[in-house]
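Let us begin with a simple case.
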Amino acid sequence: MTGSFDWGGFERTLTEGVVRAVTSTVREGQGERFYAAALDHVYRETDGRITLPVLALNSAESLERYPVEERADLRWSTADWDHYDDGWLGEDLARDWERRLTAEACRGTTRHWEATFHRYLTMLVRVCRRARTELRNGGVADRGFVLLLLDEEHHERLIKRVLTAAELRRHFPQFDEGTTELARVAALPPTERASYLVSRLGAFDGPVDSETAAAALRDLGPDAYPALLPMLARAGRAWQAAKLLADIGLPDDGVVRALTGALERTGDSDQSWVAMALSRLGRLDLVLDRAGDLPPDVVVSAVAAPYTGFRDHAVAPLPLDYRPLADVIARRPAYLPDLVERLAPGHSYCTITPDEVDEAVAGLASPHALVRRHAVSVLGVRALGARVGRRVLPLLGQAARRDPDPSVRRLAILSLLRWRRDARPFADVVRAALDDPATEVREAAAYWLREQGTDQPT
């Protein structure tokens, strides 16, 4: 199924729009020396909406208004540029193409959405290259002018695809330096490699930044423990070590002892991250044993940790298990109000795998509304696959109809929506929710019907 989306027309429209908008800005700039433009901030929701990027431009004169020591950081920071335009293509035309692109991405499986989005990024690379060539050939921009495609998730990769090798060395030498440095570090013995990478945690410049170092430490696995454990004794740095220890997983007795000791001597955010690490490593019991000596928010953070998005940072997260959460709710009810706030809808929940569906389904029958809210939310993921969908969709429909908690009924409707057209057979269930006694449920039902295009009575 190839679809009928007009990729060629889309590319021509965006290229012409970029050239037109940059030309207009340069001409209005009255002689300013524009050195770069960028397509930036491609907003998307996986298996959902995809937008057009913002168009940003900056000139040498604008950059020179800042102190010399700040210019290197601001040179490619589009949020600080003088010209940042989200209406560069025209509101109606942009809305129409966004609607058509989103429809194309969402017409099949989640895998199709991902393929469509990456095809879109590749097309934007070509738009940048072609628009830059036209701007140079038309005399609007000089040979040093660059047009970038910027994206937080694919930052380095997209810049490398847009620029020539010479431009990359001139404007982003850190990318080449980083590749060379990482290759050098990879050849070191594990102990030396871990020590170097730990030294780069918190670094925002240089050939290896903090994010790259953290990823390399996760990849290093237990060989990173000897370099990370001493960090637990350093105020303001213990949290980084604790998080990485949890991300790596596979703790030995030494790691557990070190985290337990750090729990007793650290404070503030360091202590919270240590408690969360113990919980994510399956040792919430060690936190609860000391609950009387810990601030309530530290205990709550630890209890909630395995159910939040932080869990997904781990190389191999522990399987979803609602028993610890249910046990705390039942045996330590004083923590429940703060747990409800910490795990409120809209916060980042963990993303489950098909192997965890059984536990999430069991959570739908929990006597605790907080567990049911979490379970009904994490089951709203179409990427779990059609087989899971055939099992889960009827259960979400039942929750939308029968759960005694209105927030669970509302979340069940929203989870059905995230299954997109797979959930359309449940439109009558959602229509029935238009008469729900809770306003929040009625509003969610009306939104579902509008989004699914099934808001007309059958």
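The second case is a distinct protein. As before, the sequence precedes its structure tokens.
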Amino acid sequence: MDGDEGRIAEILNRLSSGARKTADRTSCPSEETLAIFLSGDLAGDARSVVEVHLASCSFCVEDLVAAYKAGTPVINESVPQRLVARAMGLVAEKESVFDIAARLVKESIELVRTSGRVMPLMRPVVRSEPKAALENALQVEQDVGRFRVAVELDLSEAGMCQVVANVKEESGEPAEGVRLSLTSGDREQASFLTRNGVVVFDRISPGEYSIAVSECGNAVGRIRLNLMLEK
């Protein structure tokens, strides 16, 4: 076996080690084709066809990223960096976007949709507090990167919300020093580091927001928040 064949065989072994997740991939390039592509030996129209396919196929993108992360030197050297960056971005977004849409209705908050899990609010019961008061808050939880993030929305006053993010490590301990940055459009509204795992954004008016989650300057994921007023 010459050097080129050995290189392709090594890459093919990396691709084959992660069995394809579904049989419904008849339009995907074969593992042999992907291996040759990753080796840098697929040229001309054939290479262009694979690149076009990767732009729309998350399965093959995940195969490419998995092979790249496996650390085989020849893969790291031969894969175009622009393609790796694009693939990494697609996978990161798929894994780390947390969506919450809620409607502010008079003195309550209604959850419209979310990609997370609705969690019960653990609050002490006050005898004089009417049950309806609990309708002005909701809590949703989801994994963002390696963190478990619970977002609580409280109707602090008419038409305004308080957004509380509780960030935990995989161990369940509060995550310290994680930065959460709230933006609306292209404008940053506020940015804080977690203290005891918590960040609080006060007096948030209805609108569409993004909360970027980062650690030591590295992006972890983001929370897409849409607060709507009752029509």
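The radius of gyration is 23 Å. The chain is about 30% helix and 40% strand.
Keep these points in mind for the review questions at the end of the chapter.
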